[in-house]
Structure to design on (288 residues):
């Protein structure tokens, strides 16, 4: 019951926090910029991730174990993979936005037009939900003739392949090959963007200017570090000798903790969002 209550509070807090950011970005004119548009898209991705995982997890905890249909398990696996891949690409696009803002400030409004930002976002959505099918369909076609008991908190690629009694070499190969465009291309984009940003910040003569330039990237860097750090700890770091409990906790970090902490980082460390929230509360209070 303790875990059930904790996860329920985190889930409600995540939904409310991300919906608040989406609402503020949509209604406040001061937040109608590319950076906040991408933040609102990241909030949508966070809502998809945690909604895909937590409701069923709450059902499992409440009943001390539960049954999920094969179609439901594959569907959960598909939306989890697509949502996490979407977050990878959105974080990469956001780093590119910061690169243009700091390294090419005079051309920022010309490059990052609203139409261009919408096209980038649509490409990300279509690409990740298409590429997720490539490794979801072969995984669904495997033969599962064992006890079909998933010793995990949700349907993920590793516990599913452990249950398969047919050859999983092709699926492992597909997952490895798809990780290049899904994970390593966004990471490369982020690293290259921030290398250029650091060189640009170093050339700023005043310390106040350097601090102001870096402050616009601090929230994004924090989110990137938390997300990719937990993601790599689950899928890249060798799991030999790692207990199933530790594996479950690490999985919860990027599926539950990260969506919960993202709106906190972007709201508490962002003056524009705080100002927009205060104005919205004041307007609501005046109307009432």
């Amino acid at each position: 019951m303790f875990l059930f209550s904790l996860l329920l509070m985190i889930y409600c807090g995540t939904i409310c926090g991300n919906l608040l950011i989406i609402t503020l970005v949509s209604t406040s004119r001061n937040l109608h910029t590319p950076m906040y548009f991408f933040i609102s898209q990241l909030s949508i991705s966070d809502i998809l991730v945690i909604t895909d995982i937590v409701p069923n997890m709450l059902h499992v905890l409440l009943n001390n174990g539960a049954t999920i249909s094969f179609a439901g398990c594959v569907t959960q696996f598909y939306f989890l993979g697509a949502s996490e891949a979407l977050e990878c690409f959105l974080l990469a696009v956001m780093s590119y936005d910061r690169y243009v803002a700091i390294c090419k400030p005079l051309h920022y409004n010309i490059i990052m037009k609203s139409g261009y930002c919408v096209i980038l976002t649509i490409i990300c959505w279509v690409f990740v939900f298409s590429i997720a099918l490539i490794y979801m369909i072969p995984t669904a076609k495997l033969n599962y003739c064992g006890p079909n008991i998933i010793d995990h908190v949700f349907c993920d690629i590793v516990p599913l392949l452990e249950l398969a009694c047919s050859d999983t070499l092709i699926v492992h190969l597909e997952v490895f090959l798809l990780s290049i465009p899904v994970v390593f291309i966004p990471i490369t984009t982020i690293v290259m963007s921030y290398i250029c940003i650091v060189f640009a910040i170093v050339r700023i003569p005043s310390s106040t200017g350097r601090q102001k330039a870096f402050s616009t990237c601090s929230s994004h860097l924090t989110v990137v570090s938390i997300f990719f750090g937990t993601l790599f700890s689950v899928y890249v770091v060798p799991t030999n000798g790692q207990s199933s409990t530790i594996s479950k906790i690490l999985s919860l970090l990027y599926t539950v903790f990260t969506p919960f902490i993202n709106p906190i980082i972007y709201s508490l460390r962002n003056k524009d969002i705080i100002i927009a929230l205060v104005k919205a509360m004041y307007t609501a209070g005046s109307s009432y």
The first helix runs from residue 2 to 27. The mean pLDDT is 84.
